[in-house]
Design goal:
- The complex is a heterodimer of chains A (174) and B (132).
- Chain A has 174 residues and is mainly β.
- In chain A, 11% of the residues lie in helices and 34% in strands.
- In chain B, strands 1, 3, 6, 7 and 9 form a five-stranded antiparallel sheet that branches.
- Chain B has one domain (15-130): Sandwich (Jelly Rolls).
- Classes of the chains: A mainly beta (174), B mainly beta (132).
- Chain A binds chain B through residues 9-10, 14-18, 22-25, 46-49, 52-58, 61-64, 77-78, 89-91, 121-122, 128-133, 163, 165, 169, 172, and chain B through 2, 5, 17, 19, 48-51, 61, 66, 68, 70, 72-78, 80-85, 87-96, 112, 125-126.
Chain lengths: 174, 132
């Protein structure tokens, strides 16, 4: 601990939920990736902007929908306009699955190829104590009429539930 | 405690900010679904919600209302995807401000464990007490 720089608590904006300084687990030494993601300039603008509201989008709907073995399931997420996605989480009924998030207009994908949910789930994205969210290195804006397309691939030989949640911020006039 | 965290300019209200945590506790029966359960905010201070963590004896899905009256999520999110740990609460950002005396983050939750389920959710954040 003595090797860490001293941060004066009075210099920390504790009202900023996404400040990497307010959470020891996000410190530069503890989790450099999250530290940098939250310091990204677009993320900083979202953290401090007015007229912005947090929002979570989860799919599929209903949440307990069964995905058949070996099938690919695409879900068009019904988001609100001007939606910034800054983190994702994934879980299911136990076994692993693959998922991908694609911008419906630009075709941009979050990942180069569908990623295993086990890589993004709470139990393995670092340690179990680090919370369920996987932070994007910079938030992705879905400009109207764009929306996220979440692709879920059940790679197992048995049916299962597979869920993906996007953590976002949406813009509102005040 | 941070003294006068907000602007001290004349005609501007001044606040004292303190850490705050509102505990939500609910015993669910198997597959029980409950909606809009209030987490009442104290009358003396606004509450700025910055994080959520909790524990339970089984799986459940969860959603809550923002101060604007809108739901946080389009559907209830599995607890494994939203409930953080004491060490790392899930950040709710930008943080919504629940006014003093309001019903707070009204909670919707549904048991998915198929058995009795004791759910604890801790809404952590900052209490903002107006001083002038």
């Amino acid at each position: 601990m003595l090797t860490k720089d001293w941060i004066d608590p009075r210099s920390v904006d504790w009202t900023d939920a996404l400040s990497p300084l307010r959470n020891p687990g996000w410190s530069k030494n503890n989790n450099r990736y999250v530290y940098q993601a939250l310091q990204d300039q677009f993320m900083q603008a979202l953290r401090q902007g007015k007229g912005i509201e947090p929002r979570g989008y989860s799919c599929p709907e209903p949440a307990n929908q069964i995905i058949a073995p070996g099938t690919t399931y695409d879900y068009n997420m019904p988001i609100e306009p001007n939606c910034w996605c800054w983190a994702v989480a994934a879980s299911g009924s136990g076994a692993d699955f693959l998922f991908q998030v694609t911008d419906s207009v630009t075709g941009a994908t979050f990942f180069s190829q569908p990623v295993p949910a086990s890589l993004m789930s709470a139990a393995v994205n670092g340690t179990a104590g680090r919370g369920p969210l996987f932070y994007l290195s910079t938030p992705h804006l879905f400009l109207p009429p764009s929306y996220p397309v979440v692709r879920i691939i059940n790679t197992q030989s048995t049916p299962q539930t597979c869920r993906v949640t996007l953590y976002c911020a949406v813009e509102y006039d005040q | 405690m941070s003294p006068t965290a907000s602007s001290s300019t004349a005609n501007q209200p001044t606040y004292v900010e303190e850490p705050a945590a509102y505990l939500f506790s609910q015993a669910l029966t198997a597959d029980e679904a409950l909606q809009a359960i209030s987490v009442n905010i104290d009358r003396d201070s606004d509450f700025l919600l910055t994080g959520i963590n909790g524990s339970s004896t089984g799986g459940y899905t969860f959603n809550f209302r923002l101060p604007s009256g809108r739901l946080y999520a389009n559907l209830q999110i599995p607890n494994t995807d939203i409930i953080g740990t004491a060490n790392q609460p899930t950040a709710i950002g930008p943080p919504p401000i629940y006014r003093a005396g309001s019903v707070g983050p009204q909670v919707d939750l549904t048991d998915t464990s198929g058995a009795s389920n004791q759910v604890y959710v801790l809404f952590t954040g900052i209490r903002r007490i107006r001083t002038t």
